[in-house]
UniProtKB/TrEMBL annotation:
InterPro entries: LSD1-like, Znf_LSD1. It is found in: Nucleus. This is Protein LOL4. It comes from Zea mays (Maize). Keywords: Nucleus. One of its GO terms (cellular component) is nucleus. Signal peptide: none annotated.
Length: 150
């Protein structure tokens, strides 16, 4: 028996044997993990190298295409997000590697980046503002709960 899934790299429909851990795409050579019947896939995140948007992806993905700028980002390139807890309001913040400070969008406190090994529970990300259909500036804030293991 065979099943189909969307390639994690090029989004092309790829056929694979049921029970297999995943499949390597013949077009782009990306490995895509098959759906886990025992539960949802473990998730991870990275920062887009083109527009610096945080992207969430399944841990089995080799590449992630940014929906904003279209850049194909490798999950193996070491651009995973760091996390820290805001020193003022305790909101968990995500930041790209190399950041020395992180501004909290909730309380506007500027936090120095230190060793942030504690597993996050809530992640708040403020993406660049966009224009709505009337031309007004709209905030783009995402809040999530991290349920994956580090």
């Amino acid at each position: 028996m065979h099943s189909h899934l969307a390639c994690s790299g090029c989004k092309r429909l790829v056929q694979y044997r049921r029970g297999a851990a995943g499949v390597r795409c013949p077009s782009c050579d990306a490995f895509t993990a098959a759906a886990n019947p025992s539960g949802p896939p473990e998730m991870s995140e990275l920062v887009c190298g083109g527009c610096f948007t945080m992207l969430v992806h399944s841990r089995g993905a080799a590449n992630v295409r940014c929906p904003h700028c279209g850049r194909l980002n490798s999950t193996r390139s070491g651009n995973q997000m760091g996390h820290l807890s805001c020193g003022q309001c305790r909101t968990t913040l995500a930041y790209p590697p190399g950041a020395t400070t992180v501004g909290c969008p909730t309380c506007r406190n500027v936090n120095p980046v230190r060793d942030a090994r504690a597993a996050p529970q809530t992640v708040l990300v403020e993406n660049p503002r966009t224009l709505d259909e009337k031309g007004k500036l709209v905030s783009n804030v995402a809040v999530g709960v991290a349920s994956w293991k580090r």
